[in-house]
Amino acid sequence: MRTQADDELWSAIADPSRRRVLDLLINNGEVSASWLAGRVPFSRQAVSKHLVVLEEAGLISRRKQGREVVYQVEGDRLDQATRAMAGLAAQWDRRLAAIKRLAEAAHAEARKERGSKPRGIGGDGGEG
Amino acid sequence: MADLTIEREVVIEAPAEVVWRTLTEPDQMSLWFADRVELVVEPGARGYMQFGDQGGPVVVETVDPPTRFSFRWNHPRGEEPVAGNSMLVEFTLTPERDERTRLRVTESGHELRAWPEAEKQRYADEHRSGWGEFLDRLTGVLPEGRPG
Question: Backbone phi, then psi, for A83, in 5-degree steps?
Fold first, then answer.
């Protein structure tokens, strides 16, 4: 089960358009909202909204550069997000492995109780 | 469609009916999934899963024995779980020869709901990369970000 903080990270990155914005920030360092807006297939307004969500999740930060506001990626937080997502995939692998063990044990047990291997259902010759 | 999906599968040496029972019977679920499972596996049923000292509600979506089972979870407290505010977990069981079953699980969050259709399509056409590729890229750019 994910924590509240994980949930925030998760929903921040779950949106493909926000991933696109994040991608641009990762690859281009400090850039402004208008620079970003010129490189995505959605409006300047949408870019601003995405930047707010990403900032609230702690994935990016802003600073003033002259008259402009520029954004940059927060590496530690992004690292944490990456680990969380990779961890989720690993979690499902562990669960599937457990299901496999349980189901195979139950099946072996049922076969033993029947006293013999079933014939004609799958055949014994088709292993592999 | 570009969205966040985790997809995993395993081949099990047991018929789909056996895998189905392991997958959906609450006392079995508590062996492979949560520490405590309160759930009736019926479409629309609401349940609860406890993991250590944390827990959360789940809502069953599809029950089609012995091939499909899905539920939603991780929706905000007090809200109805729908596409957009929750994660959908879908299990698909495919019988294979010699009493084997291929079990596939996907966990997905479709967050494109706020977009006009045309923009969605355009975005999907331009960016076919899913979550997995994004993850690969992230681990590529973050020297210490390799998942353990």
Answer: -65, -40
Instruction: Please give the radius of gyration of chain B, using alpha carbons only, rounded to the nearest integer.
Output: 18
The one-letter code for the residue type at A75 is G
Query: Distance (Å, rounded) from C-alpha A15 to C-alpha B78?
Result: 22
Q: Which residue has the tokens 């539920």?
A: B71
Give the best residue of A82, A91, A93 to mutate against chain B (max B CB count within 10 A): A82
Q: Which two three-digit tokens encode residue B70?
A: 């899905």
Nearest chain B residue to A102, by CA? B22
Predicted TM-score (pTM) of this structure: 0.61
Interface predicted TM-score (ipTM) of this complex, two decimals = 0.71
What is the C-alpha to C-alpha distance for residues B59 and B73, in angstroms, rounded to an integer?
Answer: 7
Helix (H, G, I), strand (E, B) or coil at B101: strand
Q: What is the pLDDT of residues B12-56, one digit of tens each?
A: 999 999 999 999 998 888 888 888 889 889 999 999 888 777 778
